[in-house]
Amino acid sequence: MWTLFYLLLAQKKNIAIFTGWGAFIQAWITATIPPFLLLNNQWEFVG
């Protein structure tokens, strides 16, 4: 993500839609799935 933000903001590349979707998907994976598994007592079965 840092590379995408660097290319988007510092290098002025036209990748805004790709960067937005990448941030959305990464945020959903890291901020939704683990809490859902914790709330359903399934976290100990992961890994």
Task: Describe the overall structure.
With 47 residues, the protein is an all-alpha fold. Helices cover 68% and strands 0% of the residues. The chain contains three helices and no strands. The protein has helices at 2-10, 16-31, 33-39. The longest helix has 16 residues, at 16-31. The model has no long low-confidence stretch (mean pLDDT 93). The chain crosses the membrane at residues 15-39. This is AmiS/UreI family transporter. It holds the Pfam family AmiS_UreI.
Key features?
0% strand, mainly alpha, 68% helix
What is the N-to-C succession of helices and strands?
HHH
Q: What structural category arises from helix and sheet content?
A: mainly alpha
Biggest sheet: strands, sense, closure? Answer: none
Kindly state the percentage of residues in helix.
Answer: 55-70%
